[in-house]
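Two proteins were folded this term; both appear here.
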Amino acid sequence: MLAGFHGQAIPVELRSLAREFDLGGVVLFARNIAEPGQVAELAREAQELAGEAPLWVAIDQEGGRVQRVKAPLTVWPAPAALGRADDLDLTRRFGRALSRELRAMGITFNFVPVLDVLTRKDNPAIGDRALSNLPEVVARHGVALIEAVHAEGMPTCAKHFPGHGDAAVDSHEEMPVVDLPPDRFEAVEWVPFRAAFAAGLDAVMSCHLLIPSLDERNPATLSHEILTTRLRGHLGFGGVVFSDDMDMKAISLRMEPGEAAARAVAAGCDVVLQCGGDLDRVAAALEGLVHAVEDDSLPVTRLDDALRRNAALKGDYLSNEARRRAPAPPTLREVIGSAEHALVAEQMRQFA
């Protein structure tokens, strides 16, 4: 479980949940952020919640409209600028600079890259978050971003599987229905994901889309057919699967947190994100997982598999050995107002 919360310090209630359930990490949003030094202190505080394993301190820092920490750190144009520039060196420099700034604040997980192919221009959820409307361009630059983030010693998480680029509505508000045939996903939406898997992608984030040609009843996050049969079996992905935020209305208006969390894990999610900040909902989701194991609706073997994948990923990036292998994290002083990073942003801005 990765939990969101309110405020610019770790709440007492979250500390209690971590003691009782051993959380997998926290997710930071703009509501948690005042300035870079405060974020660094918050990340340090979050690590105090760790039980048997270190916690992820995660964030969505894509550039453009999805950028939780802004000035005095670099303010980045939207990723679409990278696709328009079509300069892989620029994309790699962006990925390294973005990751370097996060590491300086103690953030250990960034949900990038976005691999959605923007086939619907009026898509309200994706828009210029997408690198391109061409699958081969998204694939090329997605791989370049993966290489750059890995070079800075951070994991990568592609989103949103099986592809959010053709949705007409925003899953934050309601359940999108994407009526495309399976061969279309093969030819377009899954081209970047296949390239990312070959490049060593660590994790995938699901999306709350209903795709009748793949599963008539369940949105992707709750679909065993999509996450296990297709993603694991057909596409051969062996990394960690994160749910998208289970507090988004596509899910939260239809079921309680405990049922949603249990169904997501049963479908194939290894990590459940509960990001809205209501810690009662986080507790309800965790309790729902416990009850689902107790009543055998969630097989213990599925839970063990999820925990094994989580432990392996944390071993790759958060263990003492992994930290020794990674580049030394820069200090905030080295990255705030960095001329090198400002130059990358300015070059991207020419294509924004």
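Next, the second protein.
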Amino acid sequence: MPHDPVQHDHARHNHPTEPHLHADDDGRQVVGIHDLQVGYQGRPILPPISVCLHEGELWALVGRNGAGKSTFMRTLLRLQDRIGGRVQLDANVRVAYVAQRSDHQARVPGTVVDFVEGGLDVNWSFMRPWLSRRQKETVQQALNDVDLADLADRQMGTLSHGQRQRAHIARALATDPELLVLDEPTSAMDPINERAVFGLLQRLARRRQIAVLLSSHHMSFLPDYADHALLVDRDLGIAIGGGLRKVFWSESFRRVYGDIHFGVPADDGCAH
């Protein structure tokens, strides 16, 4: 894949250059990120990032609080201007985003199925105010995929924390995305629900053959479900991505987390 020529001002950036670890080219590429620089007011907060996300992959965007994860995610979604580099994301690629939950989301009115159908409002019109058969089937499949079909007629306000998060994921799935991006999807969850959500996202990536990118600073369970990782740390000037073992056994990871590898076994040539 050709790269656009990009000039990096490392003196202005004031970060050391990090090696770029790329994912294996398994499956169709969904998004290519080439020397992407993210930041504010023309000043990057991380080194250039180059990774490719393919269908069927679950990527974990990891780092400490305030490390730059949300900035990267917003830039990837084009909610924030990039400083430099390029994001190769075709206009016809369907992208769904699940934002970090807030307290007001627990008070969403209506039933679960109404909430999930609301994700299709982008195609709603006064000329055709009802859902097509195809759309109804898509909504039903989304409910099935997150194990909420039996609760479709329940009021959103009566759901547990984990059930509400699954409803938000179903709403995103109703758009039939090829790239699913989630910001801290297990924030404030207990360990049982947290593990259940990670397992669900892993199954969705493989079953639907979509690329899934989730941000998290909860490292305990991620290695059991993610196969790729992108580690960022604005304070240490780190941005490194690729296969899970390569990232978790990199010197950059050691600088952030010390000698804790969260159960990820060393690969040949990756252990220090």
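Residues 191-208 form the longest helix (18 residues). Confidence is low (pLDDT under 50) at residues 1-25, 123-128, 268-272. These notes refer to the second protein only.
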